[in-house]
Amino acid sequence: MTLSPTSAEQFQLQRRYLAAVDFARKAGQSTLKHLRPDLHVECKSDNSPVTIADREAEQILREHVLAAFPDDSILGEEFGAVTGTSEYRWVVDPIDGTKSFIAGVPLYGTIVGVQHRRQNVIGVVYIPGLDEIVHACIGQGAWHQVGSHAAQAARVSDCVELQDAIFVTSQRDNFDRRDAREKFFQLEAAAWVTRTWGDCYGYVLVATGRADLMVDPLMNQWDAVGIEPILREAGGVFADWQGGTDRFTQIEGFPGEGVGTNARLLPQVTAILGAGGPAPSR
């Protein structure tokens, strides 16, 4: 999407960009009061955990979006879809990394993505436990801020060889769930370091050049829409396991998997990952 800086569309996009950063912070900060060992945990129909913190944070996001942009659509992990009349859609994950959250580990985050005409144009990931945020809007670069420090440009690493790369993922048994265990072991053997600093924090690490590769065997749209513009504006790529970058805006065609890295590493990674079949539905 190419917009003139003075166009009405650019003005509307900028309004949503500033709002997305603000809304992500507010929703993420609301989770901190629940970051305690006695938190009640429920299981959803897919056996994934959910807490009052997930639901409250998504309600905050929805309330703010609908108050500021009542004509926009919303898709969220906990409360489904609301269809609006504008060409904008918000796609939100109130707590990405709920398992880390319920364990008291602060490496979870709130993801806010915005689409315009089905293109991913805004992405925000806020890590409330670290007060760390990375955000991007198409054509404006990606930005990283920790606490009250000034925001700095976010850039992916310039690592050129997989043998020198830091590879992160959320948990190894997600590869088992799609019959791809050997692909994990191949990546682990090929990379310099493998760590499970995963969920959205893994993509924050890649977007800021602290890790070189993040792989998700299983993803939902609310995990991905906010990530894609951040990596793109940080000079990186967000692709499926075959290296394709054009399916992350689709509902029916969403690949259900993700690779975040730089353009030089992507062919080496997809040479390992791309031989497998498509991701199973979640």
Largest β sheet strand count, sense and barrel closure: 8 strands, mixed
Number of strands: 15
Helix content: 25-40%
By helix and strand content, what is the structural category? Answer: alpha+beta
Distance between the termini: 30 Å
Radius of gyration: 18 Å
The coarse overall form would be globular
What is the topology, as strand order, of the major beta sheet? 4-3-5-6-7-8-9-10
Low-confidence stretches: 1-5
Strand content: 15-25%
Q: How would you explain this protein's 3D organization?
A:
Residues 1-5 have low confidence and may be disordered. With 282 residues, the chain is of the alpha+beta class. The chain has helices spanning 8-30, 52-68, 98-102, 173-176, 181-190, 199-207, 221-224, 227-233, 266-273; strands spanning 42-43, 49-50, 73-76, 80-82, 88-96, 109-116, 119-127, 132-137, 142-146, 152-153, 166-169, 193-195, 213-216, 237-239, 258-261. 31% of the residues lie in helices and 24% in strands. The strands form three sheets. It has an eight-stranded mixed β-sheet with strand order 4-3-5-6-7-8-9-10, with helices on both faces. A five-stranded mixed β-sheet has the order 12-11-13-15-14. It has a two-stranded antiparallel sheet with strand order 1-2. Strand 8 and strand 9 form a beta hairpin.
